[in-house]
Amino acid sequence: MAADRTLAIAAASLVIGVGVLGLKFLAWRYTGSVALYSDALESIVNVVTALTALIALRLAQRPADAALPYGYHKAEYFSAVLVGVMIIVAAILILREAVYGFLDPKIPQAPLEGIAISVVATIINLVWAQVLVRQGRKARSPALEADGKHLMTDVVSTIGVLAGLGLVYATGWAQLDSVLAALVALNILWSGWGVMRQSVGGLMDVAVPPDTQRTIRDVIAVNADGAIEAHDIRTRQAGRLTFIEFHLVVPGAMSVEAAHGICDVIEGKLREAVKDVQITIHVEPEAKAKHAGIVVV
Ligand code: ZN
Ligand code: ZN
Q: Could you tell me the pTM of the whole model?
Protein backbone atom coordinates (compact mmCIF):
# COMPACT_ATOMS: atom_id res chain seq x y z
CA MET A 1 0.00 0.00 0.00
CA ALA A 2 1.01 3.62 -0.53
CA ALA A 3 1.05 4.26 3.20
CA ASP A 4 3.91 1.82 3.80
CA ARG A 5 5.86 3.52 1.07
CA THR A 6 5.22 6.90 2.69
CA LEU A 7 6.56 5.55 5.98
CA ALA A 8 9.67 4.20 4.27
CA ILE A 9 10.27 7.60 2.65
CA ALA A 10 9.89 9.39 5.98
CA ALA A 11 12.37 6.96 7.59
CA ALA A 12 14.86 7.54 4.76
CA SER A 13 14.35 11.30 5.25
CA LEU A 14 15.46 10.93 8.85
CA VAL A 15 18.62 9.00 7.92
CA ILE A 16 19.53 11.45 5.15
CA GLY A 17 18.78 14.41 7.43
CA VAL A 18 21.21 13.11 10.09
CA GLY A 19 23.90 12.54 7.43
CA VAL A 20 23.53 16.03 5.95
CA LEU A 21 23.50 17.58 9.43
CA GLY A 22 26.83 15.86 10.20
CA LEU A 23 28.38 17.18 6.98
CA LYS A 24 27.16 20.72 7.57
CA PHE A 25 28.46 20.81 11.14
CA LEU A 26 31.79 19.59 9.83
CA ALA A 27 31.80 22.42 7.28
CA TRP A 28 31.11 24.91 10.08
CA ARG A 29 33.81 23.47 12.39
CA TYR A 30 36.35 23.70 9.58
CA THR A 31 35.62 27.35 8.85
CA GLY A 32 33.98 28.99 11.88
CA SER A 33 31.71 30.80 9.41
CA VAL A 34 28.48 32.24 10.88
CA ALA A 35 26.74 31.64 7.56
CA LEU A 36 27.73 27.95 7.56
CA TYR A 37 26.67 27.73 11.21
CA SER A 38 23.23 29.02 10.27
CA ASP A 39 23.12 26.49 7.50
CA ALA A 40 23.94 23.67 9.93
CA LEU A 41 21.34 24.85 12.43
CA GLU A 42 18.83 24.75 9.63
CA SER A 43 19.64 21.05 9.20
CA ILE A 44 18.73 20.29 12.81
CA VAL A 45 15.27 21.50 11.88
CA ASN A 46 15.21 18.97 9.05
CA VAL A 47 16.08 16.10 11.36
CA VAL A 48 13.37 17.04 13.86
CA THR A 49 10.95 17.54 10.96
CA ALA A 50 11.66 14.06 9.63
CA LEU A 51 11.21 12.55 13.08
CA THR A 52 7.84 14.24 13.72
CA ALA A 53 6.66 13.38 10.21
CA LEU A 54 7.50 9.75 10.87
CA ILE A 55 5.52 9.72 14.12
CA ALA A 56 2.58 11.54 12.51
CA LEU A 57 2.50 9.20 9.52
CA ARG A 58 2.47 6.17 11.80
CA LEU A 59 -0.47 7.66 13.67
CA ALA A 60 -2.30 8.54 10.44
CA GLN A 61 -2.06 4.90 9.39
CA ARG A 62 -4.16 3.72 12.30
CA PRO A 63 -7.69 2.78 11.31
CA ALA A 64 -10.57 4.87 12.66
CA ASP A 65 -11.90 3.58 15.96
CA ALA A 66 -14.78 4.33 18.33
CA ALA A 67 -12.87 7.18 19.99
CA LEU A 68 -11.71 8.77 16.70
CA PRO A 69 -14.39 7.77 14.17
CA TYR A 70 -12.92 10.03 11.45
CA GLY A 71 -9.49 8.45 11.76
CA TYR A 72 -6.06 9.80 12.71
CA HIS A 73 -5.28 11.62 9.46
CA LYS A 74 -5.09 15.08 10.98
CA ALA A 75 -2.09 14.04 13.06
CA GLU A 76 -0.07 15.04 10.01
CA TYR A 77 -1.26 18.64 10.22
CA PHE A 78 -0.24 18.87 13.85
CA SER A 79 3.21 17.64 12.98
CA ALA A 80 3.49 20.22 10.19
CA VAL A 81 2.40 23.08 12.49
CA LEU A 82 4.97 21.94 15.06
CA VAL A 83 7.64 21.91 12.38
CA GLY A 84 6.66 25.43 11.34
CA VAL A 85 7.15 26.61 14.93
CA MET A 86 10.58 24.94 15.11
CA ILE A 87 11.66 26.46 11.82
CA ILE A 88 10.83 29.91 13.20
CA VAL A 89 12.80 29.21 16.40
CA ALA A 90 15.83 28.20 14.29
CA ALA A 91 15.55 31.45 12.33
CA ILE A 92 15.58 33.49 15.53
CA LEU A 93 18.70 31.62 16.78
CA ILE A 94 20.49 32.36 13.52
CA LEU A 95 19.54 36.06 13.62
CA ARG A 96 21.08 36.27 17.09
CA GLU A 97 24.33 34.70 15.83
CA ALA A 98 24.32 37.04 12.84
CA VAL A 99 24.10 40.12 15.07
CA TYR A 100 27.04 38.90 17.23
CA GLY A 101 29.04 38.06 14.10
CA PHE A 102 28.33 41.45 12.59
CA LEU A 103 29.53 43.27 15.72
CA ASP A 104 32.66 41.08 16.02
CA PRO A 105 33.51 40.00 12.46
CA LYS A 106 36.05 37.25 11.68
CA ILE A 107 37.22 35.94 8.32
CA PRO A 108 36.26 32.21 8.12
CA GLN A 109 39.13 29.67 7.92
CA ALA A 110 39.85 26.76 5.54
CA PRO A 111 37.57 27.96 2.74
CA LEU A 112 37.95 25.14 0.22
CA GLU A 113 37.39 22.25 2.65
CA GLY A 114 34.34 23.95 4.15
CA ILE A 115 32.78 24.76 0.80
CA ALA A 116 33.48 21.28 -0.63
CA ILE A 117 31.80 19.54 2.33
CA SER A 118 28.83 21.89 2.08
CA VAL A 119 28.46 21.27 -1.66
CA VAL A 120 28.25 17.50 -1.09
CA ALA A 121 25.59 17.99 1.60
CA THR A 122 23.61 20.28 -0.70
CA ILE A 123 23.60 17.86 -3.62
CA ILE A 124 22.23 15.15 -1.33
CA ASN A 125 19.53 17.59 -0.14
CA LEU A 126 18.63 18.64 -3.68
CA VAL A 127 18.08 15.08 -4.90
CA TRP A 128 16.11 14.12 -1.82
CA ALA A 129 13.92 17.26 -1.92
CA GLN A 130 12.78 16.33 -5.43
CA VAL A 131 11.93 12.79 -4.33
CA LEU A 132 9.95 14.08 -1.34
CA VAL A 133 7.84 16.61 -3.26
CA ARG A 134 6.98 14.10 -5.97
CA GLN A 135 6.17 11.24 -3.60
CA GLY A 136 4.34 13.50 -1.16
CA ARG A 137 2.07 14.76 -3.91
CA LYS A 138 1.47 11.25 -5.19
CA ALA A 139 0.59 9.90 -1.76
CA ARG A 140 -1.29 13.13 -0.87
CA SER A 141 0.74 13.44 2.27
CA PRO A 142 0.99 17.08 3.40
CA ALA A 143 3.79 16.17 5.82
CA LEU A 144 6.04 14.72 3.11
CA GLU A 145 5.31 17.46 0.61
CA ALA A 146 6.02 20.16 3.21
CA ASP A 147 9.30 18.42 4.03
CA GLY A 148 10.33 18.38 0.40
CA LYS A 149 9.46 22.03 -0.22
CA HIS A 150 11.28 23.06 2.91
CA LEU A 151 14.35 21.07 1.88
CA MET A 152 14.27 22.88 -1.47
CA THR A 153 14.46 26.29 0.25
CA ASP A 154 17.43 24.87 2.17
CA VAL A 155 19.21 24.04 -1.03
CA VAL A 156 18.63 27.53 -2.42
CA SER A 157 19.84 29.25 0.75
CA THR A 158 22.96 27.03 0.95
CA ILE A 159 23.86 27.90 -2.65
CA GLY A 160 23.50 31.58 -1.74
CA VAL A 161 25.67 31.12 1.34
CA LEU A 162 28.42 29.36 -0.62
CA ALA A 163 28.46 32.00 -3.35
CA GLY A 164 28.63 34.70 -0.68
CA LEU A 165 31.43 32.94 1.19
CA GLY A 166 33.46 32.94 -1.99
CA LEU A 167 32.92 36.70 -2.04
CA VAL A 168 34.01 37.00 1.62
CA TYR A 169 37.33 35.27 0.84
CA ALA A 170 37.79 37.25 -2.35
CA THR A 171 37.11 40.68 -0.86
CA GLY A 172 38.16 40.11 2.77
CA TRP A 173 34.93 41.78 3.91
CA ALA A 174 34.24 39.65 7.04
CA GLN A 175 30.89 41.19 7.96
CA LEU A 176 29.36 39.82 4.78
CA ASP A 177 29.44 36.39 6.46
CA SER A 178 26.96 37.62 9.09
CA VAL A 179 24.83 39.41 6.53
CA LEU A 180 24.51 36.12 4.64
CA ALA A 181 23.51 34.33 7.86
CA ALA A 182 20.79 36.93 8.44
CA LEU A 183 19.50 36.42 4.88
CA VAL A 184 19.39 32.65 5.48
CA ALA A 185 17.39 33.31 8.65
CA LEU A 186 14.84 35.45 6.78
CA ASN A 187 14.46 32.76 4.13
CA ILE A 188 13.91 30.17 6.86
CA LEU A 189 11.29 32.39 8.52
CA TRP A 190 9.42 32.64 5.23
CA SER A 191 9.41 28.87 4.66
CA GLY A 192 8.27 28.29 8.27
CA TRP A 193 5.35 30.62 7.72
CA GLY A 194 4.40 28.78 4.51
CA VAL A 195 4.42 25.37 6.19
CA MET A 196 2.29 26.63 9.06
CA ARG A 197 -0.24 28.39 6.86
CA GLN A 198 -0.89 25.27 4.80
CA SER A 199 -1.34 23.04 7.82
CA VAL A 200 -3.60 25.46 9.64
CA GLY A 201 -5.76 25.39 6.50
CA GLY A 202 -6.00 21.62 6.88
CA LEU A 203 -6.92 21.89 10.54
CA MET A 204 -9.60 24.48 9.68
CA ASP A 205 -11.24 22.17 7.09
CA VAL A 206 -10.50 24.20 3.98
CA ALA A 207 -12.43 22.89 0.93
CA VAL A 208 -10.61 20.65 -1.58
CA PRO A 209 -8.85 22.43 -4.50
CA PRO A 210 -11.18 24.02 -7.14
CA ASP A 211 -10.41 21.43 -9.84
CA THR A 212 -11.32 18.58 -7.46
CA GLN A 213 -14.53 20.44 -6.55
CA ARG A 214 -15.38 20.69 -10.22
CA THR A 215 -14.73 16.98 -10.71
CA ILE A 216 -16.99 16.14 -7.79
CA ARG A 217 -19.85 18.29 -9.14
CA ASP A 218 -19.51 16.82 -12.62
CA VAL A 219 -19.54 13.26 -11.31
CA ILE A 220 -22.67 13.94 -9.25
CA ALA A 221 -24.40 15.73 -12.14
CA VAL A 222 -23.75 12.91 -14.61
CA ASN A 223 -24.61 10.02 -12.31
CA ALA A 224 -27.71 11.21 -10.46
CA ASP A 225 -30.25 9.64 -12.85
CA GLY A 226 -33.68 9.61 -11.20
CA ALA A 227 -32.86 12.38 -8.71
CA ILE A 228 -33.99 16.01 -9.13
CA GLU A 229 -31.05 17.95 -7.81
CA ALA A 230 -28.09 17.94 -5.48
CA HIS A 231 -27.18 20.87 -3.26
CA ASP A 232 -25.15 21.98 -0.23
CA ILE A 233 -22.06 20.15 -1.41
CA ARG A 234 -19.34 20.40 1.20
CA THR A 235 -15.83 19.01 1.01
CA ARG A 236 -12.83 18.87 3.28
CA GLN A 237 -9.63 16.99 3.48
CA ALA A 238 -7.70 15.21 6.23
CA GLY A 239 -4.37 13.90 5.05
CA ARG A 240 -5.04 11.49 2.20
CA LEU A 241 -8.75 11.29 2.94
CA THR A 242 -11.33 13.51 1.20
CA PHE A 243 -14.72 13.97 2.85
CA ILE A 244 -17.72 14.78 0.63
CA GLU A 245 -21.24 15.56 1.85
CA PHE A 246 -24.30 16.80 0.00
CA HIS A 247 -28.09 16.71 -0.15
CA LEU A 248 -29.82 14.74 -2.89
CA VAL A 249 -33.40 15.75 -3.75
CA VAL A 250 -35.62 12.95 -5.13
CA PRO A 251 -39.37 12.71 -5.96
CA GLY A 252 -41.28 12.32 -2.68
CA ALA A 253 -42.95 9.12 -3.82
CA MET A 254 -39.67 7.36 -4.65
CA SER A 255 -38.98 4.29 -2.51
CA VAL A 256 -36.12 4.36 0.00
CA GLU A 257 -34.60 1.49 -1.91
CA ALA A 258 -34.59 3.38 -5.22
CA ALA A 259 -33.16 6.55 -3.62
CA HIS A 260 -30.45 4.52 -1.92
CA GLY A 261 -29.69 2.91 -5.26
CA ILE A 262 -28.97 6.35 -6.77
CA CYS A 263 -26.71 7.15 -3.82
CA ASP A 264 -24.76 3.93 -4.33
CA VAL A 265 -24.17 4.75 -7.99
CA ILE A 266 -22.92 8.26 -7.20
CA GLU A 267 -20.73 6.98 -4.37
CA GLY A 268 -19.16 4.38 -6.61
CA LYS A 269 -18.36 6.92 -9.34
CA LEU A 270 -16.99 9.46 -6.84
CA ARG A 271 -14.76 6.75 -5.39
CA GLU A 272 -13.33 6.13 -8.86
CA ALA A 273 -12.83 9.84 -9.67
CA VAL A 274 -11.45 10.99 -6.31
CA LYS A 275 -9.29 8.48 -4.45
CA ASP A 276 -9.73 7.81 -0.71
CA VAL A 277 -13.13 9.40 -0.20
CA GLN A 278 -15.66 9.23 2.60
CA ILE A 279 -19.13 10.21 1.35
CA THR A 280 -22.28 11.15 3.24
CA ILE A 281 -25.47 11.85 1.26
CA HIS A 282 -28.62 13.28 2.81
CA VAL A 283 -31.67 12.30 0.77
CA GLU A 284 -34.68 14.61 0.84
CA PRO A 285 -38.11 14.61 -0.90
CA GLU A 286 -38.82 17.33 -3.44
CA ALA A 287 -41.50 19.04 -1.30
CA LYS A 288 -39.12 19.47 1.67
CA ALA A 289 -36.08 20.61 -0.30
CA LYS A 290 -34.83 24.04 0.74
CA HIS A 291 -33.13 24.69 -2.62
CA ALA A 292 -30.12 26.38 -1.10
CA GLY A 293 -26.54 26.08 -2.29
CA ILE A 294 -25.39 24.88 -5.68
CA VAL A 295 -27.77 22.98 -7.93
CA VAL A 296 -25.83 20.48 -10.03
CA VAL A 297 -28.37 18.18 -11.62
ZN1 ZN B 1 -31.26 20.14 1.44
ZN1 ZN C 1 -25.98 3.00 2.19
A: 0.67
